[in-house]
Amino acid sequence: MSYQKIVITGNLGRDPEMRYTPSGQAVTSFSVAVNESYTNANGEKVKKTIWFRVTAWGKQAEICNQYLKKGQQVLVDGRMSADPNTGGPKIWTKQDGTAGSSFEITAQTVRFLSSRADGDSGPMVGGGGGMEGAEMPPEDDIPF
Prior knowledge:
The chain is mostly beta strands. Helices cover 7% and strands 45% of the residues. The protein is globular.
């Protein structure tokens, strides 16, 4: 028996998008940016963003669609899905011609870490997540 689990904390890159399967089941997708910053060997501050595309199903999909908005912070617990063509993350070309990538997650749990009202940071659940000073990229750099 195999098992995998991934937990991320990040900010929504845009509002969620909900649709229904032919059988009537709700499915909501949203992008989450996980930011990391560190100082390299030359003493320069480096900022990196890893994108995750999250899919929630059923009642959880409806709740995510209703309450989540661009910029809000979430904790997602789920399992990772690989691109069936490559076995890795989804790769695309940004408008500036550089390569971008995102990882696909099917959510088991989504926790809202921001207030519902306007996306201001709310109380954290558990530890930090390296989100201090997180910056959202321009809309064109969001992969979905």
